[in-house]
Amino acid sequence: MTDQMYAKLQTPKPRRDRGIAIPLAVCGVICAFVLGLFLYAGWYLQHFRAFVRAFSDSTVYAYTHGGVQARAGEQHYRITGDTVYLPYTQLTGTPGKLYRASPDAAPDLCLEYGDGAVLLLWAVELEPGAAHSTGIFWQFTAADGTVWRYDTDAFPADRLAPLWAAP
Question: pTM of whole model > 0.85?
Fold first, then answer.
């Protein structure tokens, strides 16, 4: 009887020791995640620097060639003098969230720089409870056709009000 009882028992299989494998796997996943964040940050920085470089070139071109042609709704007017630098100083100082598409609505303001570059600006409503009620979405198309789109809530849209005002 005891032999039958022991025959039904199975001897346990030896367990593999996974002592360090699980912590190493977790560390590997964390390192891969951190590396991914660094790579994305580097790519974003290069992307934004290219935008700033192209925007700077177009702004200088417009400043030295008589200003920017502006269109707000049905109004067409020229922006000259130091006001030409207003979008550059405001938008390059506050990088926003990168977007692949522009809003469906027509832009509130279109600035043509004369070298083929165009800046489109939208005043966008912000979530209730934000520091201000409107932010800026902008799309800049450089003279070579490269397009950048950003959205920022870092400053209110009225900070660019002199651009919307026809002379």
Answer: no
